[in-house]
Design goal:
single chain; Aspartate Aminotransferase, domain 1; binds pyridoxal-5'-phosphate
Amino acid sequence: MSPNPYAWINESLATIHRADWYRSVQTIHGRPGAMVIVDGREVINFASNDYLGLAGDDRLIEAGVAATKQFGTGSTGSRLLSGHRELHRDLEVAIASLKQTENALVFSSGYLANLGAITALVGKRDLILSDEYNHSSLKNGAILSGATIIEYPHSDVTALKNLLSQRQNYRRCLIITDSVFSMDGDLCPLPTLLNLAEEFSCMLLIDEAHATGVMGKTGAGCVEHFGCTGKQLIQVGTLSKALGSLGGYVAGSATLIDFLRNRAPSWIYTTALSPADTAAALAAIKIIQLEPQRRKQLWENVDELKKLLQLLPKLKLLPSESPILCFQLPSAAAALEAGKQLKACGIFASAIRPPTVPTSRIRISLMATHESIHIQKLVEALLSI
Ligand SMILES: *Cc1c(COP(=O)(O)O)cnc(C)c1O
């Protein structure tokens, strides 16, 4: 008999188990919020990207229900065929207004927005300079584009400048980076990146997935936080984090958006975002603009936690300037064990391990809807890991 061509999958899984890299899902019951029920037990939720607590907000739910009743469950086709609705246009206008860009384009996820933008902008004859800690969607977008990819050391602008000055005869050059690094919580050095992009005539794409709704005075993201509003660059983001819905977007100049509608395969050849998701994201943007107190509360929570963490000097807190705080642990097994202990104390937090990140850690994300007592319980639980 010939050998089973699928046998290697079992062996590969066994290797994943041995390294403590095995991943599995945990079932969350009920609506998302600061408290959730995981595997039948109520825990305080520090594992969510729902920074402003909007994913369980009645207004988003009602917008989603109303849009479903009016327009149906599915959008029935791609945007260029039968899927485009007024709702999509309204959402794109709202994103462009939040970001203060000429236009925006909504994709069916943030992941697809990165794949689409990068593959449209560069190809075989081009160069991508990519931060080594970038999100998977940026890395895979780069691979899919066929361009030459050079990873630069995390946020190292000196190394980046050296690479740019050695840049050979590539047709075009694109720098890609997270703005808030999703598994670390630190920020990209945006003003320097913009200067370098200008000096070396290079395009710059930043991924504001964890920054939109969170960073900047009006919640427009790191571009606003760093005072770079109006500069020429390509902004990507998601509707699935602080905006509490699903979907992604690119925001930028009118010509960029027009070009992407013609050249981004992950926009052209996929079904348009559903009416419910589109309407919920639109409701979220309105709330972000009308209720700055949510963002204020989120940052007060970050300050409160950081202050209390000074009482725990033994924990190795990674540098953070966002509501994402990570504690480095010596091994994947230690991170898993810490996650279990936190759960036993009623705290839901993610153990993040390779290959997602180079070093294992516990990742905490704060929400505007956390109360002081939640944060105090987290700190007590952290004492035990
Ligand atoms: C979550 C995330 C994405 C993907 O967004 P989805 O809408 O969930 O597909 C892209 N980039 C970064 C940095 C992210 O954290």
